[in-house]
Design brief:
The structure is a homodimer. Chain A is built from 17 helices and 26 strands. Chain A has about 550 residues and is α/β, with parallel strands linked by helices.
């Protein structure tokens, strides 16, 4: 504060010119401007923005009446159903923090999260009653109030899950609830536990300001129109569906809900509702492009897809382009609200071949428009690596779309923010055009005879073989070389390929030392978000460590 | 701060997760991601984002080296040329505040603003040398450093305006200048004096946070693509061109520069560069749709246009629709960074007739997506008026895209923000669908026999007459009725209409008491931004007051 600065005298913030940034404002606006536009589609159910706003206000009001407020946690264990969408607004309206639980977790993990996050309320779909009964038994007297979502699509549980059902809870609330914006835009809006392959998961705390900005970011990066029709192939429990519940409120889009990712369900929905946009991990797109072609018949419009969650194999990028799905590759992590980098397409790429474009679009790219910066930093110096496509460093982010930190974990928080950057743990190079290309997770790199081998590079080669549906490459201990690549491969239904054939195929595309020494056939284990569980495979390969 | 709130412990802001919101970040990103995409087009000149960033950094660096920094003002008097665009980045990079001067001001007004704003530097086009010599003479020893922009399109001034020219100043600076984001996003970025029809103008101070958000707002409200081609028909001195210099940096658009609004210049530019977007007051579009049709030949693509600055006459909305210009009606004021409301189109309007759509699109509408709220408040109670299309109140805004206040004018600032809303001085009704429709400026309303007459309604009727190019209606004192409407009308070139004919025409469309009692033919005086100067007309009509 310069006492002599005329621009600071009598020009303070006041209620007219300063309001907390919060995505709750988007819902209020869409309900006012487009009250009768469709917000939610689920089976035969339709819900417009006016109805959705009223239901969210009821939820916020009912929670508040039951004593839930600022600093409290409301956990949900729900598939992509309307109640999950509503929770993204109703819970923060009460002032509380939304903790979405991965629906594939086991009872121990759920119990840990409910306890660590101090959830006062748990809203859960009855599909998950068996695992939740176990988890709640572990909590004993510390169990939260449990609210059951009774979806007609699911048979009632053997014993009811909760004290009351979701519609009863809403009925307790006021559809005209005078909710308040957060006192401070830095207030927490969500708690998401990282899938953490081992050890206790970390609770990523995000804030209203970041959720607001990333919701807008999605619109700007993807040039979203007003009223898109968005298919929920991405779990909303995964970093709040990359902020898309809030993005849909900003552009008054229609959310097509979906309990599970199955091409036999997805294609009819795309056809019936003329779905315009979707998001997902490569595995989702892989399923779609490998589904029987008759499922696609009658679909003539293009669908725009964001792809992230793992570096997309070239075969997926090519397959989608051929199938009328216009992919945009984004990259991020829970700690940065989902997408925080985008492989921004350059107009001149349009003139290149499909293969060249796939190569370029397979990179993680540049900072999202409203994210401040992405950089690849040399771990030794903390300085950016040379943009030469060879020098490897760690991908780091900085900006307003970065978490507050890890809940009750100051050590991990300080480590993640060392040097004024958020450290992702992903290793990458920077190409001469400034685009970041991930080479590996730091723990996934294979070191063979002193040479670094990118497991992703080997996987990319395998994915180009026509018989391969999924491939994962990990280190296998080797007396001579230290480590050598070992491949786990899942073939397409009906397709055949031998170990020798795949090794030969890789020889044609890779340097000799990068070629897998061994190929194991079978289903590749994945997390609920489509990430391959390499720690399981490392175990099977007899690798250096199952901790990874 | 609740000591017991786990979401506030060890989860503070740090350089990794909190950065000041500033539109300067957009320029840095476009220069990095799209270095060779076109940023500026001016005559034969082309400048890409990399070059533009380097020039802006030179400007910021040169200003800083000359002692300009935080709390200082840099004034510019420039048409829509590249230097004007660059000033929107280079000046705030130095930490200073950009004060754009209306290029049609007289010497007294310029001298007042330079003195009141304490400008340390003035960057000016040599076209304005005559008036600036006078203004600077009035300032005497308090004159700022004057930098002249020597545009080849303009003959050199009789005596040079400044100590140095703009290119010399840039040459003093460093193209790699390590500029800093503002310490605080609440820091001032621009100072804009309101055109104020009488009395001393007020200096509207805006901040980095608002400029950032409104730049994004323009993208979201208008569904701007990446790389639009934007024609500068709107003066950048008018609320920083509604934030579009910053919007263009966000979407890496090409700015087609333009010294003056003339259809004979505009149509060839639209054709040559395939202009996709433009903004302007109704007068701009009126000129375009009334220009000789041969100017338009060969233009087959659609142009999207934002229109604001005055309520658009129905004839303009209809004319543009017929001419392939897709208008979106926005509304705002300098105090809210330009557009702050938008007449958001409803999908169901597509099925209506042109006339019906024009009626609906002629309203000021709803809050801009990232503006918090617009409301029409009853001056007596401060409460929203009933949405009945009849109850009149004052249009008020609230949110993050509202000025800091008026420079060195705490009284006017407090008045503008009374009750936690920014008061526009515009009178409006709210239609049952929640859309705001301005009926008049509070000072423009005509009170005849106790009935309020909206001057805009009468002007709309006159504009529908085929011979009318521009019309303005003001109050004329009347012994019996208090006031009666008096119309000032400018006819299209070659068109003819008598006073009696226009009065008859209005009788067919308006209630008797609203029909102009008198019609005066001649040029209608306008401000540089296309607003009709009603205070001049009130004088001519012998109205109650020239102060208005």
């Amino acid at each position: 504060m310069h006492p002599g600065n005329p621009y600071e005298l009598g020009l303070d913030q006041n209620p007219a010119n300063h309001v907390a940034l919060s995505p709750l404002s988007f819902l209020a606006r869409s309900a006012q401007v487009y009250p009768h536009a469709t917000a939610l589609i689920y089976g035969a159910r339709r819900q417009d923005w006016s109805q959705t706003y009223a239901r969210c206000r009821r939820l916020g009001s009912a929670l508040a009446r039951r004593g839930v407020g600022r600093g409290d946690t409301v956990a949900v264990m729900l598939p992509n159903v309307p109640a999950m969408f509503e929770a993204h607004f109703g819970v923060p309206m009460s002032g509380a923090v939304l903790n979405t639980l991965n629906t594939r977790l086991d009872a121990e993990a759920i119990a840990f999260m409910l306890e660590h996050g101090q959830a006062k309320v748990l809203i859960a779909d009855r599909e998950f009653a068996p695992v939740l009964h176990k988890a709640l038994a572990m909590l004993g007297a510390r169990r939260p109030l449990v609210v059951e979502v009774d979806d007609e699509a699911v048979a009632p549980a053997a014993s009811p899950l909760g004290e009351l059902d979701y519609e009863q809870l809403l009925a307790e609330g006021d559809a005209d609830y005078a909710w308040q914006l957060p006192h401070d835009e830095w207030d927490a809006i969500a708690l998401n536990y990282t899938s953490g392959t081992t050890g206790n998961p970390k609770g990523v705390v995000t804030h209203h300001r970041g959720a607001y900005l990333n919701a807008a970011n999605n619109v700007i990066a993807w040039t979203l129109p007003h009223h898109p029709v968005y298919l929920w192939t991405l779990p909303m429990f995964h970093c709040n569906g990359w902020c898309f519940p809030w993005t849909m409120a900003l552009v008054a889009g229609a959310s097509v809900c979906l309990r599970r990712v199955d091409p036999a369900l997805i294609y009819p929905l795309i056809r019936e509702h003329r779905v315009s946009h979707m998001c997902g991990a490569p595995i989702v797109y892989n399923l779609l492009i490998n589904a029987p072609s008759e499922l696609r018949s009658g679909i003539t419009h293009k669908v725009a897809g964001l792809i992230a969650g793992a570096a997309p194999p070239l075969a997926v990028i090519e397959g989608c382009e051929a199938a009328g799905i216009e992919l945009t590759h984004v990259y991020g992590l829970t700690e940065v609200y989902g997408p925080a980098a985008v492989c921004a397409k350059q107009p001149q790429w349009d003139r290149l071949s499909l293969g060249e474009r796939a190569q370029l679009n397979g990179r993680q790219g540049v900072a999202y428009p409203l994210q401040e910066a992405v950089a690849v930093l040399d771990p030794a110096t903390g300085q950016p690596v040379a943009p030469d496509g060879r020098s490897i460093g760690e991908v780091c982010f900085r900006g307003n779309v970065v978490m507050k930190g890890y809940l009750k974990n100051p050590g991990a928080t300080a480590e993640a923010f060392a040097g004024g950057w958020f450290h992702t743990g992903d290793l990458a190079v920077v190409h001469p055009d400034g685009y970041v290309k991930i080479t590996d997770r730091s723990k996934d790199i294979i070191i063979s005879g002193g040479e670094n081998i990118s497991s992703i590079e080997v996987e990319d080669a395998l994915h180009r073989h026509p018989a391969v549906l999924a491939a994962a490459v990990v280190a296998q201990p080797d007396a001579k070389w230290g480590e050598v690549p070992c491949a786990f491969v899942e073939l397409k239904p009906g397709a055949q390929a031998s170990e020798a054939e795949l090794i030969d195929f890789c020889r044609g595309m890779l340097a000799h030392f990068k070629v897998p020494r061994r190929v194991v056939f079978g289903e590749v284990p994945k997390t609920s978000t489509g990430k391959i569980q390499k720690f399981v495979l490392r175990d099977r390969a007899g690798s250096r460590s199952a901790i990874g």
